[in-house]
Amino acid sequence: MRAWRDGLELDTGSPQQRATLALLLLREGRPVSLDEIIDALWGEATPKGAQATARTYIYRIRRALAHPKAGGEVVVSSGGGYALPAENVTVDLWSSRRHVALAREARERGDTGHLAKLLGEALACWTGRPLAGAHGWYVDQQRAELDRFKLTILEERLAADLDLGRHSEVIGELTDAVSADPLRESLRELLMLALYRSGRQAEALAAFDDVRRKLGDELGIDPGPGLRTLHERILRADPELLGPPQAAARPQSPADAVLTPASIPAASAHFVGRTAELGSIIDRLGGTGRAAIVGVTGLSGMGKTAIAIQAAHSVRSMFPDGQVYADMRGSHSEPVDAYDVLGAFLSSYGVTGDRLPTTLHERAACWRSVLSGRKVLVFLDDAGDPEQVRHLLPATQGSAAILTSNRRMVELPSVQWVNLTPLSPEESLELLAIEAGRERVLRERDAAIRLAALCSHHPLALRLAAARMTTRPLWTVAQIEAVSREELRGLTHLGPDCTVLARTFRRAMRSLTEEQALAFRLAAVPDWTYLTVPAVAALLNVTPPRARALLEALTDAHLLEAAPSGRYFYLGIVKVYARCTAWADDGPDACHAALQRLVRFYLTNAEAAVRSALPLQGPTPGGPTPGGALPATMTYTPARGTRPWPADSRSDILAVLDQVDDLPEATARRLRGLILREWRPAKTHGPSPEPEVTPATG
């Protein structure tokens, strides 16, 4: 459930606040009493203070929807309750119902063409799952009703298309609809009729046999009279079944004589959240003008393929000439060549044998010709580099492409990128509930929240955690969280359950240079939350400009996250993996040497900062700086009265000091004294993205 004002998306709040907004919208302007809101949110399990909580949701909804300049309230008080008048908002569901009402008027007039058009417009109002992000018994009930309403619209539109002679065009949609609801007999009737009218009598009869078997096995009943009658008429080749002639189409080439490709993989039944990102992808794929190309990027395991598949199925009806899919990595470590993918795509449109071009550029030109004048969706999954996909992308209006990749491809300026970040805490809980059992997760909500944070809200890590819960049904969630946390405190090795995550992150590292990979590993060794350019320069023994370039490269690869004030941070589970590989690949000596360089940097610059603000009286206490003086490029000369690091870095520096076992006691005491002298307890501005290292569980 999403809302916009002046083109900007609004925050609709928590799941229960969204459920309150859903109740107001579903009443279509009619007032809703406070008691009705409470019942919709909690049912019989009404908590103490429910009235105050419900009024708070109304207040927040008013504040979220109110226009900052126009004034006035979108949600009004009415008859002892609350209402959202139709003149204050535009709602896609209301628009869909208006189109359906107009469509039924067209049916009464016998205007089948206008009927099909209006029903298509009614369906176009629907994007994603109804009432997504809202929870509660009332929402679940209404969502089921809305699903049935949408399916009814689809059925009526498909029936109108059949009446217009569009037999072949609707087979793909009907097949998908039947797969989603295999026991709905009216859909089976339409599919059988479309197949029969397209000259595919055997497949029509097979569709009847399939539904008869499913009805018998699952419900113990036979097909209804409508299906049985249609089956008998097909068997005796009733001429009246043929209906109107096939709708006129452009002249067919040999490529048109084959089945319309529909090779997008099945969508996940456990897809959770990502409402804003999914809506953005769908909106961009449906844009007008030149061919729309949308890229989905993010850290490995963030669910790029899952959300791209969801989007592809949501817009399928917009691309009636086919949807083609290619795994650009396949089952191999090496990327799939564009030449081979073009061959597969062309073959799916009937360009085979001697007609299939033999060079890359000839195949690319032929592919552009096939796409010309068609509406085709091209799905390129796990693309590695621009040259791998450049020849596969559509070039003309009508078609579109969606691709997933671990990094943005700036060499392809026509791609509109959508970046995936970790799930929200609420989405993480929902994923755990779906995968491991809702009752179990809600019974130990606090422990589940800690477990989700331990996973850094990373979708793959959450699924692995849920798998552990499923295979240990007698363990409490708190026990699983505690064991997982304890396992990941031994940061010099990865447990066997973490091998899936390790493989995932190794894939993300394949695009790194040797220097970038070393920086990724060593920068995870210190116990710090934020990475600053000067400190990383000292840690790696490089200049600050080089350190900045390395940190930016790791951010582009989604192995680091950008924080305010030009700083960076690791997701907890990524830091665990990076530190483990540092100890394993670079060895303890290299890790200790990096920490020594960092301590020298802290000590040198703390002294400089303190002396700049207030010169010390007499000699500085303590022994010599460990390892000698730093190169000039690694020291920092602060302006008088300033600090060399952000005010919230003190805890990071003290944590690093605790890591260096062989630091002379006098030197450690001197650095601690300088830090404590310079800093009072720091106030952090805004929430820390990683308040502690939150490693994944396996």
From TrEMBL:
Record carries keyword Membrane: no
KW DNA-binding (keyword) present: yes
Keywords for the protein's UniProt record, in alphabetical order: DNA-binding, Transcription, Transcription regulation
Record feature DNA-binding region, as residue ranges: 1-86
Origin: domain of life: Bacteria
Domain called OmpR/PhoB-type: residue spans: 1-86
GO biological process, one term: regulation of DNA-templated transcription
Region Disordered, residue ranges: 679-698
GO molecular function: ADP binding; DNA binding
The family this protein is said to belong to: Belongs to the AfsR/DnrI/RedD regulatory family.
Protein name: DNA-binding SARP family transcriptional activator/RecA/RadA recombinase
UniProt source species: Thermocatellispora tengchongensis
